[in-house]
Amino acid sequence: MSQQKYVYFFGEGKAEGSAEMRAELGGKGANLAEMTNLGLPVPPGYTISTQACAYYYQHNGIYPDGLDEQIEANLAKLEKAMGKKLGDPENPLLVSVRSGAPVSMPGMMDTVLNLGLNDETIKALIKQTKDERFAYDAYRRFIMMFSDVVLSGEEGEPNYRPGLKRHKFEELFDEVKEERGVRQDTEVDAKGLKEVVEKSKEHFKEAYGKEFPADPKEQLRLATNAVFESWNNPRANAFRKIKGIRDDLGTAVNVQAMVFGNMGEDSGTGVAFTRDPMTGENVLYGNYLGNAQGEDVVSGARQAMPISEMREIMPTLYEELKGHAERLETHYKDLQDIEFTVEKGKLFILQTRSGVPTATGRAVIKILVDMAEEGLLGEGEEGRKQAVLKVQPDHVDQLLHPQIDPTVEVEPIAKGVNAAPGAAVGAVVFTPDDAVSEAQAGKDVILVRPETTPDDVHGFAPAQGVLTQIGGATSHAALVARGMGKPCVAGCDQISIDLDGKRFTVGDIVVNEGDTITIDGTTGDVYLGEIPTIPPEMTDELRKLLSWADDFRWLGVWTNADYPRDAKVARDFGAEGIGLCRTEHMFMERERLPIVQEMILASTVEERQAALDRLLPFQRDDFIGIFRVMDGLPVIIRLIDPPLHEFLPVHEELLEDVTKLRIANHQLGGVFADELEQKEEMLEAVEGMREMNPMLGLRGCRLGLIMPEIIEMQARAIITAACMVKKEGVDVHPEIMVPLVGHANELKTTKDKIEAVAKQVMEEQKITVDYKIGTMIEIPRAALTADEVAEAADFFSFGTNDLTQTTFGISRDDAEAKFLMRYVEQGILTENPFQTLDRDGVGKLVEMAVENGRKTNSQLEVGICGEHGGDPSSIEFCHQVGLNYVSCSPFRVPIARLAAAHAKLKE
Amino acid sequence: MSQQKYVYFFGEGKAEGSAEMRAELGGKGANLAEMTNLGLPVPPGYTISTQACAYYYQHNGIYPDGLDEQIEANLAKLEKAMGKKLGDPENPLLVSVRSGAPVSMPGMMDTVLNLGLNDETIKALIKQTKDERFAYDAYRRFIMMFSDVVLSGEEGEPNYRPGLKRHKFEELFDEVKEERGVRQDTEVDAKGLKEVVEKSKEHFKEAYGKEFPADPKEQLRLATNAVFESWNNPRANAFRKIKGIRDDLGTAVNVQAMVFGNMGEDSGTGVAFTRDPMTGENVLYGNYLGNAQGEDVVSGARQAMPISEMREIMPTLYEELKGHAERLETHYKDLQDIEFTVEKGKLFILQTRSGVPTATGRAVIKILVDMAEEGLLGEGEEGRKQAVLKVQPDHVDQLLHPQIDPTVEVEPIAKGVNAAPGAAVGAVVFTPDDAVSEAQAGKDVILVRPETTPDDVHGFAPAQGVLTQIGGATSHAALVARGMGKPCVAGCDQISIDLDGKRFTVGDIVVNEGDTITIDGTTGDVYLGEIPTIPPEMTDELRKLLSWADDFRWLGVWTNADYPRDAKVARDFGAEGIGLCRTEHMFMERERLPIVQEMILASTVEERQAALDRLLPFQRDDFIGIFRVMDGLPVIIRLIDPPLHEFLPVHEELLEDVTKLRIANHQLGGVFADELEQKEEMLEAVEGMREMNPMLGLRGCRLGLIMPEIIEMQARAIITAACMVKKEGVDVHPEIMVPLVGHANELKTTKDKIEAVAKQVMEEQKITVDYKIGTMIEIPRAALTADEVAEAADFFSFGTNDLTQTTFGISRDDAEAKFLMRYVEQGILTENPFQTLDRDGVGKLVEMAVENGRKTNSQLEVGICGEHGGDPSSIEFCHQVGLNYVSCSPFRVPIARLAAAHAKLKE
Question: Model ipTM?
Fold first, then answer.
């Protein structure tokens, strides 16, 4: 009976595995095999397959039949290749043991070096290297590493032994250094290191109850088992659970002959990227450290040299390395991140992997566009396709906001919700008026508020960014900031604001008005002082890449824009229409708000109409501006959506004012009577309009059905503007969107009203424009009855923010901080459904609505305008269910173009 | 070519139609035909079919071919049968013209009497009757009725002629009376009436521009067309739209020979029920008025006699009538409401229809149970089935609450939301403490509050009913009151409460503490003083009827009950389990609330645990009480659901207090420092827990996932109680329900926690109990992913209150008053979806969830515990989609038993 193959050899120019065998050999093992086959100088070794690990688990720690024999045979092969034997007192083989799963997984066992050392073999090592200090240092490190990595276990596991943790051994080393009065490891001589070895062995015996395993075969078996076991430690399990990785995959074990970079000046170790991972420039990039092991590079005790200097010092080796690097890049068709060691003048390649994860977005995009044009990724279209596929949305995102310079190391003073991306630097101001005046005086400012209201909006535009103490990612501040492309950190409850004193505090730190801070809306961090940032930029390579992406994608990319300036930015970024123009932000502008309040507080229809008549020209001019910018493209304008009390003062503040005024007025004999009366009136109005759950209250189309005058004004403004710009020669395509429809009759009734106004306006203007009327699908019932709704709709636009809220029964404002993030931490939800569309629940509704809507209206235009429209995973879903377009904020348009191409190419 | 038949004759003992031809002949016409065929003395006539009306509409007022000829022929037949001719100056035929649609419809043309009169024919009438006064009175009435009914039109219609309205003619009559110095119609002699006729004709000419139509054939054609037209008047159209009646049905026209009850002392008119419609007693019931027309009975100018007196005065006629009545009841197998006229000693039956719509619930139930037992409704089971089908849920509902005595006529002083059914009488109190003390003093009280909070709950139990100024049908007051079976009128914003002055006002009316009022929670009406009520009662007949219903139904009927006393009531009413026992009401009881608040405000887990430990015995004892009452039946206990801030003081009140205290404390040098600090602490806590949309916030299972201690305490209390009662010998079936699940993982995680506690408790108690764990389905996402949720659930219970809120995106509290009722009025929604389950939207989710849930868990027990569980239409839906049971409030259990039987029988 032929046995299953579990062990794969690599060495002497040939390997049994290959890069394709990632599932069996893990990422590391597959690459070692591939490099060996490519003829690269890889130290030989063998890989035990993931299947062996899986068997080990399924059978409670028993090896499968034949594994022992296969290991034996491959070890013999390795010994033969190296001309050394494990445990041989004359010529001992030393090996490294590493885990390597098919997918990269933190928490698994990493590396044991120098395995094979014991009191016998070290003598041979000294003899061979003639370097006693090197040998004892290697032995010391091995005992420490082996104890820590192989035997100490993890807290919570039954085999947890804190006494074997690395730091326990480092303390022994420290004792020796103290005795000798030295501070650096390198100052300790061979004798001292030998003493550390002895102390370590004693400590081990005490902590473990047995002698340190001297038999290299036992060492190897323990290390191999430790790799197997590490697949199942709590951290690895938790990680797999969160990432949805199957538990039965298992990890591979890589056993490889040691090479030493610390065997003198003709030895060394380094890392090299095939191209510059910061800029993308096509030059070999990296560091080299002479007479050192990898650990030393990491510890930073000594300064490594740039790899370009290596060229001058050791030109032959440099050219050899460069040759290998080019070979690997051409072979893998990808930026490579290579680890290498030079042992006594001989170059060994220890590892290669994609360099993309650690490169900047800018570099990745340049590299892949260059590679495509160099023909490295395939001929013509194939190359462009590969480049598009390899660039990730995050790479594009990095380029589109100012970023904190990643090379700067600095601690934030506080952390809030990352509400609108990008970094911003400025002097702190605490009122919108101060923001305006300071900005006019030429200062960059950050507006800091407990939370924001429509009254504060005029302070957003002049500010570089906004920081609030209260509210989450859909708070007023967050929405307005994202709409404007202003960085925003919201709900930063570590800060405590003293508005009267014009300062805020974080613990002991006091930040006064005028002090400079930096906020990072991408991460939610708040820093003291000015932190250097990198500006956003649409590079030539990005432009090129996105034009390639456009050729592949099927899904349209539109934008959410409320103002002509946003529309302009989005159009420049490639937006093909406006999918959501919110009209309420137009109401919130400073000069208009008093008229809006008048309209709301009107006690008769006539009074309301009078206020609306004054608002009409503002609205009309807003639309004229947008229509001009979007000449030739569709513009979806949503009728007023929020509850009207959002345009009035905040209830609590009013209540406090009135209470104070009542007392003062009483005590001072009525001197505040007028003011009190006025405030009391407003309070009464606000109280009359308050709602228990405003999200589910009188808003959206419900407003227009109760007060038709408002939407009639809006329809009039839209159609009038369209008629006027058409006369100018603009190719105008207005689409009017009715929000919050739950029942087809709501849309039908509203549509009748809009059509009546449109007819009248076009008669007045003596010109006709084509327009569409459609609806947001943001209420589960609308999705469930989409067949009926579609009968009255030219288009659907999924408002997945609200649809997620209602489908989950979750108010985002309340939930995000209070429990939603805890849900994600606990693994109850794999993702925040407000960031990535929940396919099982919300997605099911979207799918039903698309299918049923098109059943009764085959011409139905269907898009999405929730924040998910800019999220790559959600965009893929939109493509899969056959939406016509996604609409996202201007700065996400490039990302959406790329993600839409990915969705099509991955089909 | 044979023509379609449009006209159906009835008379001389034979009719062309029958009761089955309701669709063609309308309800009235079909019954006239049926009675004729039964040999009853029905004045002859003919019915023009609804098809003729439909044709008339489809062809813009043109008659179908042959209709004119068929009318002509039937009129001739009628003339022959009566030995009179229409318009004959010697022996004129007079007829009535009435509409009659297949379904009863208000707003359609009703009746024109005495058609055929003109200046010629009246002479013959005088001659024949020898009663000039009678003849002119008939002529006067005819001109008025014809003008009003046939020619005046309706406001908004093109043919609207206000000058022809009835009251214009009555003014003319009034003028004549004034001239003669008399007040009663009967005081005007023949000459006076003749003058009224002349004046009426003049007025007609002026208002119409033409002479009053003298030609009886023209009169008949105009009246026939008017009936056709009335099918399409605005009121009839609106009614059909609301009720979903097809527009193309059309109405029939009944033309029938006149008989006169006002031709002397041997004439008269009356109405008779075949049994007593108030009590259901099997005796002929009704009224008779001698020498009168139907109109006179209605106007109430003269007092009619009870029909029992007729027996003594005219025994032969009475017996004849009784015979006809029995004949009709036996024939129709239903209580009959009969109109009859005696003309010169001869009895005519003019109409018969079901008497059920105007009978009391108690009577209907008794009558149908009696009829079934008499064998009238069919043999054995068939008879019981018919009785069950004919009793409507509303009949049962009437019996289960005290009702305002329907015979009393009194105007309410205000109207609010009908929040919990039944009438209550009591003295007004304004605080819960006053309610307690007044009740202890033996007084019936009504608790009147602006709105209620948990602090007020101890005032509910001692009160007869509750009246609030603010809040709708799901306000705190409404929910608590319904749960307790207390009548409640909520959100009565016409009243203005002065708590300090202990009074409320409605306009000019002032109601002081101690004044007696009556509230009707069934209608929302509020009355001054004590209005007589009828007490609720489970009559013997109802018991019998429901036991029959139980034999037919398939759907289980459970109840929502939080307390043993409610459970007892429900079990007596036939509940087969508890479908929803809410635990939060238990938290709100006075002695427990401080401990609950301590638990909520705890700053450490230990403090919280300590408070929970003190709550545990209370909860355990609550459950023990319920388990004992429900011995042998399942009890579903829902874990805590509302957001915790509902157990804390109201934010606004605290804010006001703190603001006042701050000022006072400052001005008085800190004397309130302690109180202020305490209140400020509470304010801070409340502010920390406030939510924008509490309905969608931290509540339900989310609470338990963030603070597991709470649900662990509840699980411990439930399982401990179950173990303890099992030891007593109680057959206990606890089912633990997890609320507000949106994702299967929420349920799975919670289930793990409950199971761990249950295991521990059963070990401690050394006994095991079977229990189930399941979930509410009240979030759309749970319904959409029911297959996954069902994997972890033993049962589903649809919480259709919240499911309706989230599916519609509507907060009931905010919506009901502000726009939902307007939606129903405007026809945007046909029904309030919180009362009757929305089948298209919410129902679709329910259906999906049942189907998908049973796919992964075939044993899944599925029920509904929202308010819809007590609504007959919704119960029918629950039956159709295959739920196992419905659960409703105790007082709706009998209704649900009946409705469940209906659902099965109507399949």
Answer: 0.79
